[in-house]
Each structure stands twice: as structure tokens, then as C-alpha cells.
Amino acid sequence: MRASSWWRRPSAGTALLLAVWLNLGVGQNQPSAQPGGDKLKLRLAGYPRKHNEGRVEVFYKGQWGTICDDDFTLANAHVLCRQLGFVSATGWTHSAKYGKGTGQIWLDNVQCSGSEKGVEFCESRGWGNSDCTHDEDAGVVCKDERLPGFVDSNVIESKVRLKGGAKTGEGRVEVLRNNQWGTVCDDRWNLQAANVVCRELGFGSAKEALTGARLGQGIGPIHMSEVQCTGWEKSLWNCHFKNITLGDCKHSEDASVRCNVPYMAYEQTMRLTGGRSPTEGRVEVAAKTGNGTWVWGLVCGEGWGTREATVVCRQLGLGYAKSGLQETWYWETNNVTDMVLSGVKCTGNEMSLSHCRHHAVVNCQKAGSRFAAGVICSDTASDLVLNAPLVEQTVYIEDRPLHMLYCAAEENCLSKTAAKANWPYGHRRLLRFSSEIHNIGRADFRPKAGRHSWVWHECHRHYHSMDIFTHYDLLSVNGTKVADGHKASFCLEDTECQEGISKRYECANFGEQGITVACWDLYRHDIDCQWIDITDVKPGNYILQVIINPNYEVAESDFTNNAMKCNCKYDGHRIWLHKCHLGTSLQTTKKRERLSWSERVRCAYRSHHALCFTVYCFSCGSSEKELVFSKQTFDLHIQAGCIR
């Protein structure tokens, strides 16, 4: 037991929580190991704090609890920070610096060597065996750098978020109510309310409180109006506000903020060269040589795309990515010719390119500045979202005769078994629905290819401007694909627009294709290929998934809202959809939840894509050794079994 010190602070509410699933099937010498098969959650909590620090809490036997600071060391902090996805710890705190927790004190006298894969492998007094009070709750301060290849974000969403901003710390304010995200009306919106939002999200004070949907219009409900804060509340939900009534506010009045963000000096390790303007150019990064000096080098263009370019533009403070270029031969060159980085794969949410997965040893088939990666940045971008309720309202089944499907077969809009059918006799069973795709961003959505390269399809007599515009998938409840379809964007146009907005794109007479800001493109249920071929699908429960712009061909300000999922029941004759909602694609989340932390680390480096979604992946081939990305993760990689 320890007396209180100057570190101690009064109890306070919890801000953002960091959580990661851990598989605890392996025992240890001390009783803190959890029984086989059960899972443990770990999170950082407390207030005030940054995203990489906080009171350590564990979830055991259905209850959150804390860890006592007795015998706590920096080695313990290293283990906990790695479990949370950070490379290491920079310190630890005692005496409930981040406020006193509640409930059980699950672990006491924890003693780690620092090399353990998880705190459950460290010695302790055992679960729930403690003589401490919550005045002695331990906390950790983790290094801000994330573990490369740590695929899952371990942030449990707060009830406030920012969307649509070009830079870190700015965006449209959205709040979560009744499990549905909505916006905030700008009536009486001011700097005091913006201060609360910024601090709640871990930033500094607010620079600006923006009105009039300056950072883009949202969709869905408007949850708050006439928000009044003193400026010291811990959450926007603690401020006084009015509920929206019909007609009170429109999305053209969505509130936004710009927050003060700590200076991270990320731009000092990267620059753009050769471009026609400061917002474009060949990407050059600072690399450390064997003698300890730093030199500028190029990034290999192989596999480089929109999401990687998005991270570069954000890191340099240049807004969104307009294009990610794999060749930059047409730009002026300098004396920098060596490739120092290859195999870069980003999710698009990283703060720095160094946080993305990449090869440890440069492996680039096409060397030289001609094939170096480049970017074109912009302060605005489009943002496509699907009208989920409309899908639910318009779904039905059609048995369509084969003699009416020749064009659809030519464009690969039917399942593979259709090729074996007795044409033109028989039929295919089609799951049909309408899809209405809105552009809520701040720039028009335009196909990547210009009109000169569009492909004419004689059967349907129209042009294709994108190879794939939308994926339609029917998945089993565990995320396995059982039927799929795709829709080429044969005609992107403004079907309808909000009041006061004029249509700019239409397909007639070989017109320009695109979707204007605040307009939407409607694909009716009776259009060819607007379906999933479910002829071979058995009755049962399924997931319908729709993903817009699935190959990230066109840059957007937010890719997380490009997917829609619905629960689906099919009895062999009829079909029902319910709980349709926007969110990340199911196949990239469902199976991740089933993986333990150690399994994810084992699998994360199997390929440069780091897409390990199968629960059966338990080893890594020796041929993938070059994909260990940094010295900090080397020991972790060995422990996980990827290097033998």
C-alpha cells in the first residue's frame, strides 16, 4: 500500500477508451492467467489525458476493473502499451493520476520482464486478489508511434466525432444518439461549444466554430440545436441543447470546428519535389543511413494508391489526396534517385506515412525517379454515401427469364453457374433493390478516366467510365461471401439535387459523368445489373453488403461510410431486409473480432497487404521475414511465431 502523492487527481469522467481483444488460452505460472478460451479486454481510461495515456483497465468476468500500482514498473508499461498497439511505453503513473476507477481491482503486484506478449503472462497475485484501493490505480504513458501492421483500431468510439475535415482536428461535428450518428445545428453555435468538442476528442482548444456546413453537409438526423456550453464541460452531451423538431434545421446549417492540434513535426521527414505547384510532386522521405546521417530518398510506386496519397497529403498539411501516382517521369527530377521505402500499404487514417505497413528491406522492381510515388493534393474532396433506408424499402425477388439476360451475361452480372444454364430456357433468381448514392463532400465526384478512354458497350449501348463502381455482396452470418455482383458506372449523373443546387452531369449525348456536391444518382431496381444473382443460394439468414467505390479509384474525404450492411432473411420465396446501416465492410470486421491479439500479430506480416482475416492463420512463412518492419516489432514478431 502507498500513501497518496502529488500525482493524485480527483475522480473524473472517462474520455475516449482504447480497447483490444486478447486471447488468453495459454496459462502461466502465476494465477493471473485467465482460463482457456475466455477473452480479456484492455483499455485506457481517465481524464484529463491524451489518446496514448490513461488509467489501465481490464474487463474480466463481465466487469471492468483496474490494476494496482504496487510493484509497477516501466517493464509492465511496455507490455501493456504493446497490447494496445503502441510500440512501447515512455512512462507510467501511480496513485490514480488519471482519476480513480470503479469496481474491482483485478490485478496487484504485477511483475513483467518486458518481453511478455501480454500482461496475462506476467506474475501477479492472481485475479481479484488485492489489498489496494482505487487511490492506487496504475496508469501508463505510451509512445505515440503505433505498431506497424497493427490492423485493428483499438479506439472505442466516443459519442462525438469529426467528419469531412481536410486536416487533423477539423471537421463537421457529429454525435451518436440511439446508435445513430447525426449532426449538430449551427443555431447559437460558438467557440465555447467548439472548445468542449475539441477537448473531448483529445485536441487543444478550438480555433474556430464554423457554421453553414462550411466543412460539408451530413446526412441522417440532426440531433442537437441551440447548444449552449460554458466551455468547461467534459462532453458536448453535458451542455444544454434543444432537440430538433421537424423543419427546425437543415443540413446546410451543420456545425463544424477547427481545433488547435499539437505540433508533431511530421512534415520535416517528408517533402514533395518536381511538381507544378506546392500541392503536388514526387514523394521524398528522410531515411537514416548506416553511419547515422539522414538522407532524402524516394518511395517505390508499386502498389501506391489513393489511400497512401491521403496519408501523405494529411502529413504535409495539404488536405486530401486527389491522386496517388505510381509513375512520376513527367516531373522535373533532382539528385535524389535512391528508393528508401517500398511495399507501403495504408488504411488512409494514419497520421504519418511511417505508421503505414511497409517492407523492412527495400524491394522495388522498378527503380529510379521515373517509377517513384507521387501525389496531387487538394483542399476539397467528394464523399459518397448510400441511402440505406431506400435499399430496405425497395428490395424484392425477381425470377427473370434467361432470354432477357443476354446483355447482363455479357457484362458478367450473373453468377458463374449461369454459363452452364440451358440458354435461352429457364430463369435466374435475382435479388433486386434501388440504390441512391449521395455526394455529401465538398467536391464533385468524377470518374478517374476521361471521356476519351471510356469503353462503349454495344449490347446496352452506353459507356463505362469506371470498371467497378459498386460491389453488391450477399454474405453468410460469419462473413463468408455466398453471392456477389458488381455495377460498372455506365452512367454517373445527377438524378436529383437539393433545393437551390443545379444539376451538372447527365449521360445523354455522351455528356460528362459525375455526381455534383449535394446531388445524388439513383439506380432504380429495374435497371439491368442492379441485382445480386441468388439462384444458387439456399434459404437462411444472410448479410447484404453494398460497397461504393470499392477499389478506391476516386479520392474521397471519408471511405468509412462507403459500405452499407443489412440483416437479410430469405425463405426460398421471399426476402426481408432490416437494420440497414452504414459502416465498414463486414468481411473486414467480422472475422477480426474472432482473432486474438497474438493471432493478429502472427498473421499481420504474412504479406505486404497485412490482411489477416481468417481465424485459421497461426503461422507465418519464413519467406516473409523481410516484412518485419522495425526494430521495435522484431522481438514481438519472434514471440508471435512468425520468425523461427
From TrEMBL:
Co-factor requirement: Cu cation
Pfam families: Lysyl_oxidase, SRCR
PTM comment text: The lysine tyrosylquinone cross-link (LTQ) is generated by condensation of the epsilon-amino group of a lysine with a topaquinone produced by oxidation of tyrosine.
Biological process, per Gene Ontology: collagen fibril organization
PROSITE patterns given in the database record: LYSYL_OXIDASE (PS00926), SRCR_1 (PS00420), SRCR_2 (PS50287)
The protein, known as: Lysyl oxidase homolog
Species for this entry: Scleropages formosus
Record's keyword annotation contains Signal: yes
Function: Mediates the post-translational oxidative deamination of lysine residues on target proteins leading to the formation of deaminated lysine (allysine).
